[in-house]
Every structure is written in structure tokens, then in C-alpha cells.
Amino acid sequence: MVEDEISLRRVLKVKLVATGYRVLEAKDGKQGLNLAIKNKPDLILLDIIMPVMDGLTMLSKLRQDKAGADIPVIMLTNLNDTEKMRTAKAGGVSDYLIKTNWTLKDLLKLIKQKIG
Question: What pTM value is reported for the model?
């Protein structure tokens, strides 16, 4: 999970761990990219607006690395921006979720569909 909002990161981690998932956390895209390439997670939850390196830049760099080329990525963002959505989809994002338009239950169902 790559998310700069500490409170959201904590809530998601608690719920994901309680559901049986192992969670790696990063607070910015640079840290997230390093974790993803080193650990090759089954799935990445990725914010767009973050310090140091934004999510779209991280996604681009992730896809350029052999270790990150095929990792499913779900964007979780506050940006309801058609251009950002197109860029994310072109970069291989499987889903683009606006933070105000989903519930934790919806997210868990989507994660389960992606990785079991």
C-alpha cells in the first residue's frame, strides 16, 4: 500500500491484516517503488498525490522494471480527473477508485477478485 495519509493507511492495514493479507506500507512513491521491486507484492494499492514521487510516476517506473511489470495496481485517489484516469489506465492500472466513492467492503471484494 502506497499512501501518504497516515489515518487511511492505518485503517486499511488493520482491515487487510484482519482479513489475512500481509501488508507492506510506503508513505510516498519512491519508497513504494523500492518496496515493490524488492518484494514483488501480489497487488499494490496506490495513491496519486504524494510527496517525493507521485503515484503516476511510480506506476510508470514500476512498469519499466521487470519485477514490477505485471503487478496488479489499484489506484485509490481523491482525483476525479479524466486525464489522470486515462494516464493510469494506459500505465496498466486495473482499477481507478475515487476515495469518496467506495467502501472498505467494496475494496476488500475487489482485492479478493484480483488476488484471492
Answer: 0.89
